[in-house]
Each structure stands twice: as structure tokens, then as C-alpha cells.
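Practice problem: predict the structure.
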Amino acid sequence: MRLFTLLLAPLAALAAERPNVIFILADDLGAHDLGCFGSTFYETPNIDRLAKRGTRFTQAYAASPLCSPTRASILVGQYPARIGITAPVCHINPIYLNKELIRGGPNTRLLDANSLSRLKPEYFTLAEALKEAGYATAHFGKWHLGHNLKPADHFEPKDQGFDSDFPHAPNAAGPGNGYLAPWKFIKDPTITDDVGVNIEDRMSKEAAKYIAAHKDKPFYLNYWAYSVHSPWNARADHVEHFKAKADPKNPQHNALYAGMVKSLDDGVGRIMQAVDDAGIADNTIIVFFSDNGGYSYPPKKTDPEGYADIPATSNLPFRSGKASVYEGGTREPFILAWPGKAKADATSDILFQSVDFYPTLLSFLGLKPHAELKVDGLDQSKALLGGESARDRVFCHFPHGNAARDAVMDGFYAGTYVRKGDWKLIRFYARNDDGSDDLELYDLKNDLGERHNLAKEKPELAKELNGLIADFLNDTEAVIPKLNPAFGKAAAAPKDPLMSWKNRNCDATVKDGILTAKGTGPSPFLGVGANLSGPAQVTFRLRTTSGGDGHVDLVPTGTSKTSDIISFPYAAKPGEWQEITVELPHQGPAAIMRLYLPTAYENVEIDWVELKPAGAKVRRWDF
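Answer:
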């Protein structure tokens, strides 16, 4: 026992000397959504102050244009292509742990990946590595890497190396019904606040308490914010403040989104203040990053109303945003603050990617990844402190999306890109009419907006970079999308199985009297001619594995403007057949009724739908 104690003593002393690590991860924050990264509309004084303490990195990339894949890449240091989590589906209940292509019928042109829905517990995560080294570990905020369905499962933060987890909502893709209390996405009945309190305010206060309680021993704290992911709502005082200064000539002028950014900044300010109050600023590494590009599209539904047709943000001069393989989808704001180590009030243009955090942070702490682990990330510890980058290329494999999605979100098409130096090649799978891959080549030095495709002008360079993509896909054993051989080959059905319903942004089939729909794009829905002249009631029998919140929309006669559409919400319980009734108290004529699915990433089954107009004949669809 004495010998064991003597051996532990130097290890404990070494751990006590190591710096603390605070990793702040924003959700969907764009590359230019901070004052210190060029925004002239949003107000981020606290994050700007953090940047003054450290270095801003202008060429940092997420490993994916969507959240869960990037989050996984940070925790295990591997590319999403290797991990198999390539889409944000880790909140769904079916557990998929094998990399494979989807199965598509004759209406599906492109077969893309069926993403894993959990981060496998056999990974040795960054949290587990630091815990092994004597660190206290805590996770605050969004997880979205898997939740447990039974006691034998091990997919939640406490299963992956974190001692604590607040507010413990691992199955939430976002803050459910909204940011303002009461919070329906949090299942812990003890977590309550006054009506209207923003979840970032509550979480950052809890994180501040944690910092104060652990100031005398090394800790690793994840503050993975929910902001600024949908749903689109914010404190009323914040919205009014930005409404008064919004300028439509500024590409960024959505006052509601600005209010959401403000709450994120407030939370970061509390964390910084807690570090200062604890007297540990000089011995604390603070990382600020975002999991994917900014949502540069109209947010559709907002609370308060009035902002649905204003793009949430702008990533200009970068092209597109979240869910896109163009620069706006994966270029991120990255700040590293470490007083006395990272250069203060400095800017760096080194190439960095989210997979690099794993080996780099370990290196900062005098640690190394376990020798048997496969790590795609590079140790950039010297580069982040002013040296040269160890990286000369970045890869992104995003095997999801199709023409319908691309039409809504520019670049939301299954593809892989490589950036080497200033050159970037994107391979879009089977996008050409003959089913061959489509290549786009851009010179980012002279064409940051990716508007001038040089693939035909520089075929040799395109071939060289495409070879790098091929090697990357082979090395990571990536699931590669391909043209569906069954596409368009089935004989036409003798009748319309959907009974005049139209599927939009979803695949829909009818078998054995059940309509099954699954999203293929944002906001999937089924629509039908309603021809209503006044109030009505719609009832439907539905089943979905994980449940969720949907809505029924009425499109008034004579208009298709988004602002004129009336929406009526409903909630679906998980795992059981249920009859759902939605009152439609619209007073005017409505031409179309849309039934939006409660979840976009899994099958939704519908047995029948019944529409009861006031004072008119009932219409029923038995599929």
C-alpha cells in the first residue's frame, strides 16, 4: 500500500499542475456571426473579449456541415467518414451501428448513407483520456451523440467519460419547444426556472458554479451551447434591441437571430467571469468553436412572428451555409485563449480542422493518444501557439442530400471535398445526367465565394485532387453514395396509392393499408387539396418510433406566400399507434392542407386521415 501511495503522489502532483480545459461549442454559428470575426450587426462583447485574450483562427473547418458528425470528430479525433456518424440522427430511437447505404425504391435516384445513430462506447473519448489523467470532467448543454434505451446501453455523456451532465437531455437535437422556460425538452423535473428564462442563462450559471467548486484541481468542462440552433426564439428585450438597429442593406439583419447570438454571448461572459473570479485564468485553456456553418436560409417559423422570411444569418463572402459542402457550411470561428501561451489579440490563417482538437489538447497537457488508437487529427499544439501548421489539406465527406435538398440549401448534395492549399475540389456523387460524378474546382485565394468552377479548365489538377479524395475514402472505409440501379424501372401503379396526397421533401409509400413517409429534405410534409371554406378539424392515426412535434398548415386560397400560411401544432408520442386531432379554426377559404411529419429522419406511419369541415361532408383517406 505504501509503494502504491508513493507512485500515486507524483501523478497527482503532475495532474494538479496541468491547465484546465474549457471547450465552448456553439451550435450552427456562422463564420462571421461574431464581432471579432467581422459582424457589424450582432453584438458579442464577451466573445470579442475572449478573442482579445487569445488568437483568432480564420481558416478553421468543421469535419462536417452538420452537428453530430463534427461533435463526434472532436471527442474521438476521427473523421465522420471513419466513425460512420455522417448525419444528425443521434436523437432517434432505432440504434444503427453499421455503416451502409440506404435502401431505395424506384423513386429514389441516389442511394446515400444510412448514418450511425450513436457514438459507439468502445471509443476512448477526449473526456475519458483526461479523466484517466486525473481531471474532473463535466458536460453542459447539447450532446446529440446518442441516448440510452435500456440499462445495458452506454451512449450518454456519463458513459463516455464525463462525471456530470447538465441538463441531461442527451436525446435532444435542440431545445425542443424553445429556449425560454418552461423547457419541455428537459426531462429532469427539478430543473425549473421562471417563465421566460433562457436555457443559456441557466446553463452558464450552473457551469460557473462548477468552475468555482473545482478551481483547486484540474478540470475539463464542455460547454456545448444550444444556441443558435432552431427553434427560432429569443428574449423579447433582445429582439426589440436589435429590431431598432436592423438595416436591410446589411446581409445580417435578422433581429430574432441577433437576440439568440446575444444569449450565447451572455453565457460565455458568465463562464469567463467565473474563471476570473476563481483566479485560474492564467492556467485555463479556453476553446471557442462552432459545429457547422450558419443557417443562411429563411427560418420559416419564428417566435415572435415577423422574421420567417429573413435569412437567419449570412456567411458572405462564403457560399451557402449549414448542410452545404461549400465554404459557408464548414468554415468556423475558432478562438484559443491561454494567457502566456497563445498570442493575445492575434490572428492566424493556419489550416485547422475539428479532428485536430483531440491530439492537440492532449499535447497541451503533456499527454498523448493511446498508441493503439486510430487518430485522424494532427497535433497542432505548436501551430496554435504561433508555429507552422502540421496540416496542408482538409477533407469533408458528407454522403447525404439530393437535388431537392440542393434546391433549398445550396450545396446540400451528397459529396466529398478536399482542400489542399488554396485549391478545393468537390465531388458530387452521380449528379450528372448519365449518373457520373460531377466535379467542381475552386481557387479559394481568388474566388472565396466558389462561383467559378475551373474543373474543365484545369483537368489535371482536378484529377490529382480527385485522387486524394479516392485515397481518403478508401482509408476511412467511407460509405460512398451511388446511383440507384432500380431508379425509374418499376412499372407504373394502376392507381394513385397516395390518394391525391403529394409528398414533399419525403419519400412516401403505401403497403398493406399503411402510408409510410420518411424525410429526404428539410421540413418534410404530405399535402392535399383541402378546399375549405372555414374552420375544420383533422384527425389522423399515426405511429413513429421516437415521437416528436409536427404541425398542420393551411395555405389560404389565392396565395402561396409563406407569411400567409397558418400553422397548427401537434405532438406525437413515441412508439405507439395514436389518434391525433388538430383543430383548424381558420375563418377564410383554404386551398391546401399540409401534414408536416413529427420527425424527419425515420419512418412515420399513417393509417388514415379524416378531415371534418364545419357544416360540410367529412372527407376520409384510408390508405
